[in-house]
Structure formats: structure tokens, C-alpha cells
Design a protein that fits this description.
Catalyzes the reversible reaction in which hydroxymethyl group from 5,10-methylenetetrahydrofolate is transferred onto alpha-ketoisovalerate to form ketopantoate. It is an enzyme of class 2 (transferase). There is one protein chain. The chain is an alpha/beta fold. It folds into two domains: 224 residues, Phosphoenolpyruvate-binding domains (TIM Barrel), CATH 3.20.20.60; 27 residues, no CATH class. 37% of the residues lie in helices and 14% in strands. Strands 1-2-3-4-5-6-7-8 form an eight-stranded parallel beta barrel, surrounded by five helices. Strand 3, helix 5 and strand 4 form a beta-alpha-beta unit. The chain is globular and about 75 Å long. The structure holds 3-methyl-2-oxobutanoic acid and sodium ion. Sodium ion binds next to loops.
Length: 275
């Protein structure tokens, strides 16, 4: 039984066996993936996936703390990383530190993740110098959809140089790994070969040092939309709806509950028992 890796252990996986990760938002989901993942991310995707928000912009510190605590209770082997929500870190390194410390203190997360490249480098260095391991996130950064102009592929053409500069800046600033979201595969490979920290791909390349997906997407539970980069490894949404429709039919037919689901007046072999 191995204990959870630390950010330095994840960093040391650069160029080695692929790093496996998923998002989680609840204790049972965390338990399901604990033995299979190197790290688990409490993503701010929780806002869209579990709370029905139209984007991640409405996610609060309170939501991240509650879901982070739930996920922490389900993990024993995988490292816990938690997203900093929109508005909790962009204003200043000091603001970022205060909120990162709150997230780590309340959830026990080993590291935080924040979105942004060169413009977040000073903040990343400030956090790392003060004991907060940082996973960066570049390429498509969903908290910036309103300035990026939607969920487009990032880093094509002229954007390639910027992505590489972003990757170098956050690596130099001391981030222990970086998520590359929705960038051309060849660019993801170039970044992976260029920087000394692991790249975690989502809509990037099999050549990245690791992969991540939103767990509800890959289980087929979140079906509102399916990005091209999502592969459904299950169809839990369909299975769940079938189960619910069977339940509804049995209730309407009075075939559920059946005798084995109901209680007698007396416990068998006792008098006045709880039954
Ligand atoms: O919030 C999230 O789920 C994420 C991952 C998809 C990288 O940031
Ligand atoms: Na996120």
C-alpha cells in the first residue's frame, strides 16, 4: 500500500510512465478512481458538471472547499489537487496566496491549479516560495472564455509561440506541472519536449507526460455536450436513465416495493422487535 505522491513525485514522472488523472467532485467518485490515478483534481468544472452553471465563472471558494473536502475523504493513494476559482487569484500574488492557503487548509490538498501563462508567472513564483505547489493550466483556459472568444482550439498559427513562451514562463516560475488544454497535438509535443516539467494533456496529445479528463464526461454521465477530445469509456447517463424509468414503471404498477423490500409487524422469531 503506497501513500499518495507529492508534487515533487509527480514532477519526477517527467518523460517516464504516463501520469494518470481525472477530476472528482464527490467522495464516492474519488473512491472509485483512487487506486487508478496518480492525482485527482477537484476542478472548477464542478460548476458546470454538478451545479448546472453555464460556465466556470460562477464557481466560488465555498463550492471548491465543500467539494474538495468531499473528494479528500475518498482518497488514500492519489494526490489531491484543487482548482482556484475565477476571481480568487488574478488580482495579486497576495490575494492568490491567501486563497490558496485557505483551499489547502480546508481540504488538505497538496497543490492548487490556476489558469494562465506569462502573466501569472510572478504569482506562481510567489506561491511556490511560500509553500504552495502550483499546477499551471494553459491553452484553452475556460475562466477566460469571454476574452478568448469561446472554446476554440488554442495555439494555432501565431498562437504557437505564445503557448511555448507561456509554458517556459510558468516552468521557470516553479510550477511542478502544467495542463495543456485543447491545443494542436504537434504543439503539445513541442511544449512537452521543451520544458522540464510534466505536461498533462486534455485535448492535446498522447505524447504529453500525462492525461486528464472530466470524470463525468468520460463516464458518459455529463451529456449536455461532448467536446471532441472526450472519449466516453462508459454510458452511465443512459444506464441511469434506464434504471430511473424502470423504477417509475414499477412504482406505477405497484410492483415496487416487493415483499422483500417491506417489513412485517413483528421481527421474525421475536416479539416487539424492530423488524
Ligand atoms: O476544471 C477542470 O475540470 C479542469 C480540467 C479539465 C483540467 O481544469
Ligand atoms: Na478547471
Amino acid at each position: 500500500q503506497k501513500s499518495a505522491p507529492l508534487p515533487d513525485d509527480i514532477r519526477a514522472m517527467k518523460g517516464g510512465k504516463p501520469i494518470v488523472s481525472l477530476t472528482a467532485y464527490t467522495t464516492p467518485m474519488a473512491r472509485m478512481m483512487d487506486a487508478h490515478c496518480d492525482f485527482v483534481l477537484v476542478g472548477d468544472s464542478v460548476g458546470m458538471v454538478l451545479h448546472g452553471l453555464p460556465s466556470t465563472l460562477g464557481v466560488t471558494m465555498e463550492m471548491m472547499i465543500l467539494h474538495g473536502q468531499a473528494v479528500a475523504r475518498g482518497l488514500e493513494h492519489a494526490m489531491l489537487v484543487i482548482d482556484m476559482p475565477f476571481g480568487s487569484y488574478e488580482e495579486s500574488p497576495e490575494q492568490a496566496f491567501a486563497n490558496a492557503a485557505t483551499l489547502m487548509r480546508e481540504t488538505g490538498a497538496a497543490a492548487v491549479k490556476l489558469e494562465g501563462g506569462q502573466h501569472m508567472a510572478d504569482t506562481i513564483a510567489f506561491l511556490v516560495a511560500r509553500g504552495v505547489p502550483v499546477m499551471a493550466h494553459i491553452g484553452l483556459t475556460p475562466q477566460s472564455i469571454n476574452t478568448l472568444g469561446g472554446y476554440k482550439v488554442q495555439g494555432r498559427d501565431a498562437g504557437a509561440d505564445k503557448l511555448l513562451a507561456d509554458a517556459r514562463a510558468i516552468s521557470d516560475a516553479g510550477a511542478f506541472s502544467v495542463v495543456l488544454e485543447k491545443v494542436p497535438a504537434s504543439l503539445a509535443d513541442s511544449v512537452t519536449n521543451d520544458i522540464p516539467i510534466p505536461t498533462i494533456g486534455i485535448g492535446a496529445s498522447a505524447g504529453c507526460d500525462g492525461q486528464i479528463l472530466v470524470v463525468d464526461d468520460m463516464l458518459g454521465l455529463f451529456t449536455e455536450f461532448k467536446p471532441k477530445f472526450v472519449k466516453r469509456f462508459g454510458n452511465l447517463g443512459e444506464d441511469g436513465e434506464k434504471a430511473i424509468s424502470a423504477y417509475a414503471a414499477e412504482v406505477r404498477a405497484r410492483s415496487f416495493p416487493a415483499p422483500e423490500h417491506t417489513f412485517a409487524d413483528q421481527a421474525p422469531g421475536k416479539s416487539g422487535g424492530k423488524g
